[in-house]
Write a structure and sequence with these properties.
alpha/beta; about 45% helix; globular; three-stranded parallel beta sheet
Length: about 350
Amino acid sequence: MTPNDREQKVKSLIDKLCLTRDLKRSEWTELIRERTPASAEYLFERARAVRIRCYGHDIYIRGLIEFTNYCRNDCYYCGIRRSNSNAVRYRLTKEDILACCEEGYRLGFRTFVLQGGEDGWFTDERLCDIVSEIRAHFPDCAITLSVGERSYDSYKKLYDAGADRYLLRHETYDAEHYGRLHPASLSASHRQKCLRDLKKIGYQVGTGFMVGSPYQTPENLADDMLFLSRLNPQMVGIGPFIPHHETPFAHMPAGTAELTLFMLGLIRLLLPRVLLPATTALGTIAEDGREKGILAGANVVMPNLSPAQVREKYLLYDNKLCTGDEAAESLNSLKTRMEKIGYHIAVSRGDSLNI
C-alpha cells in the first residue's frame, strides 16, 4: 500500500467513525497506527464541527481542589505513590476546602472537583460531611469527586450526601498492560467494576487513560476506545504520560502531545456529547497544549483552586503546571487565551448532554 493509499484509508476510517460511531478493533488499531499530520488535521476539523454542533464555542471550567496527597497505592507511574518517601504530604481541612469553594464561586466556578490520593484518613463519614457542607453552601454547583476505588456502599453514601459526578480513570483496559503499570494488589477488572457501580448508583461518570504510558501499543488504545464505547461515560479525561523522578518509570519516555491530541479528536467523534478536558498534563508537555486540545475537540479546562502553598506538593508527574494560567487566579489570562482561538469561558455547571 502506498503512503497515499494509507492516507486515504485513515481518512475513510475517520469518515466512518463520524457517521457510525462504531469501529472494529482492527480499524481502531489501523487508524491510530497509520495516522499522519494530514489525517490529524482532517480529524480535528471534524471533531471541532461536532463539538460546536453540540456545545457551541463554550468552554466549561472546573475548579480543581487537590485536597490530599496521601495515597495507599503504589502505582508505578505516580509521584504521590505510597513508596515515595520524599513526597511532602498534606491534607486540607474541611474549612480549607470550603474556603477554596468560596473563592472559586466568586471567580465564577460552578463545578468543584475534589481530587486526592486514596487516603484512608478521609473515611466515608468525613468525606460525606465535606460533600454535604459544600452542597449546603453552594446548592447551584456540581460536586465532582476523584478519590479512587471505594466500595459500592461508600460511593452510594457520597452520592446521597450530594456528590453529582465521579472521575475514575480506567488508565488502560487491557488487564496485562494494567498489571505492568500497577502492583498486584490493583486490577483492571476491579477498576472497571467500580465504574459500573458508579453508573448504577446514578453518578455522571468520567473515566480516561494515559496516552503513551510505558508498554502501551496501538492495540491497547483500540481496546480503550472500545471500552469507552461500551461504558458511554459523561466525561473522559486523557493526558500524556509524563514520568516522575521518584517512580520506577522515571527514565521511561513521555507520551506525546501529538498522539494525545489525535486521541482527543477520536473521542469527540466517538462520543459527540462527552465532556472532554484539555488537561493540565497536555498543557505541561506543550506550552499551547490546552489551546490545541480545544481545537482538537475538547471543551473543558480545570484551573487549580487549591491553596498556593500545596500545589507543588501534588505532583503526579514532573514539571506539573502549578502557577500561571493553571492557577484559578489567572482566570482572566485563560479567558484571553481561549478567546484568541475563538472560544469563550462559560459560567455554568456545564452538564454533559450525554445523560
